[in-house]
Amino acid sequence: MNVLLDHFAEFRDGFIGTVEITAVSSVIALVLGLLLAGFRVSPVPPLRFFGTAWVTLLRNTPLTLLFLVFFFVVPEILFPGMSPFLLGSLALGFYTASFVCEAVRSGISTVPLGQAEAARSLGMSFTQTLRMIVLPQATRTVIPPLSSIFIALTKNSAIAGAFSVTELFGWQKLLSDQGYDIVPVFLWVAFGYLIITFAMSGLFRLLERRMEVAR
Amino acid sequence: MSASVLYDAPGPKAVVRNRVYAVVGSLVLLALIALAIVRLADKGHLDYAMWDIFNYSGIRQNIADAVLATLKAFGLAAVGSLVLGVVLAVARLSDHKPVRWAATAFIELFRSIPLLITIYAVWIGFLTDYSMWALALGLSIYNGCVQAEVLRAGINAVPRGQREAAYALGLSKTQVMASVLMPQAVRAMLPTIISQLVVTLKDTSLGFIILYPELLQTARLIASNTQVKGEYPYVSTIVVIGSIYVAMCLLLSALATWIEKRGRRAKTGIAMGTAVAPITADGSASGLAVTGLDGPDGASTTTN
To answer: What is the pTM of this model?
Structure first.
């Protein structure tokens, strides 16, 4: 308990940092993942190929390596001097996007064929079918896997702490460097993550219930 | 074009339109790649000298050692996590409440904490001088919890009649678990178990935070200790090491897919899980897709 009270400010900053990086990279992952899923189901071969290549490559790369890429290679190509927070969020977002893409894609394939056929016979285009008929129905099946993907993302954000982004792992490292007993520190950090992941799974369960429709 | 939910075989107009999209799309993608290459070349990262460092036998030796170190940690973690997984799965299905609760609490706790934090705590707290064992232990704890859930899902998927028949034959509880339920569960879940091992392999890269000289740590050392014309060869090192990682993971995933295909041919009661299952991002399977057991194409995912 003393550990927490003595260093409450750092703990709070670390907690907020974790929430922030999780939120930002979730948005990146969601947008990019949807785009990639669109690529992967599109009738245009190069885009399909690009989507597949992205997913295969990023799912088989350790996230830590991706962090190295973002911290040492990306600034050389794009704008130098981006903040560690932004680079970390991008790395997490790009990595998670490949998982989101796969979840969305498998969600799309659960929509009954007849739905899309009906949409097409009404004269809808590919984008219209995807946007108005298929994706809304796919959303329902996609929510449970998405929930575990985003919880995974929260936990992965710890790696950002090793790359000088302020978050909970940074707090753990700081205090154990100062010679505090690791066990209480570990438990408090665990508690911090539990709050976030519980909140998240609660939110997703709520979403799931709201979207529940008898089929 | 194959039948898809989303589009019919395209007519003449759609064919033309798709071609236009294909050309525009490839041009944009190629332009992005070209931009990256030009920018990297401008900064001198594509110079011959930057890549020549991998011709030095010292650096090659370093990389070979690192691959070996990675595989060592992975091997230990794989064995550790599987053993722990079996123990925890059996404990979670135990008839004794305290055992069940303890196992559940252990699994839930360590599954919801980032792996990195567990590894770091093990290292600082108990095994400061043995980073390989700290890494292997951390990985075993986390992945053991995930494997336990995978096995539990597999055991629950074994048709009830199997268990009832075994009890009717007079087998003991241990015998039922060991010779009837577990073999069938392992067989059904083999693709998922191997996919989780891919995750374990990727996660060995967290060893760099506790200074274990595995592949990623070595990459950092190579890149930050070798200077070529006043520049550090980060780009070339990352490309080389990255390819090694991707190759290792793809090999293991290919094994999972192969086993899955082989399992599909066999006609037995329970279905094989799919190889893509753990949606885990790196240290992180939180939900296990026990697909093939209850739905088509990875869509139905049980979240625990």
So the answer is: 0.81
Are residues B195 and B215 located together in one domain of the fold? yes
A158 contacts chain B (CB < 8 A): yes
Q: Is B175 exposed, middle or buried (0-12, 13-18, 19+ CB in 10 A)?
A: middle
What total of structural domains would you count in chain B?
2
Q: Which CATH architecture has domain A2-213?
A: Orthogonal Bundle (1.10)
Which residues in chain A (74-103) have CB-CB distances under 8 A to chain B? 76-78, 95-96, 99, 102-103
* In a domain? residue B295: no
Closest CA to A188 of A200, A203, A176: A176
- Asked if the structure places residue B298 within a domain, the reply is no
By C-alpha distance, which of B221, B224, B225 is closest to B213?
B221
Q: With contact defined as beta carbons under 8 Å apart, do A67 and B234 qualify?
A: no
User: Using a CB-CB distance cutoff of 8 angstroms, which residues of chain B are in contact with residue A54?
Assistant: none
Please state the ipTM of this predicted complex: 0.80
| Residues in chain B within 8 Å Cβ distance of A155 | 112-115, 283-284, 286
What's the domain range around B223?
A: 48-265
pLDDT, tens digit, 9 for 90 and up, residues B196-251: 888 899 889 888 888 888 888 888 888 887 777 777 788 888 888 889 989 988 99
Tell whether A113 lies on the interface with B, counting CB pairs under 8 A. Answer: yes
Residue B169, amino acid: L
**Comparing C-alpha atoms, which of B193, B197, B214 is closest to residue B75?**
B197
Please give the angle made by the CA atoms of A68, A71 and A75, to the nearest 5 degrees.
135
Environment class of A13 (CB within 10 Å of its CB; exposed 0-12, middle 13-18, buried 19+): middle
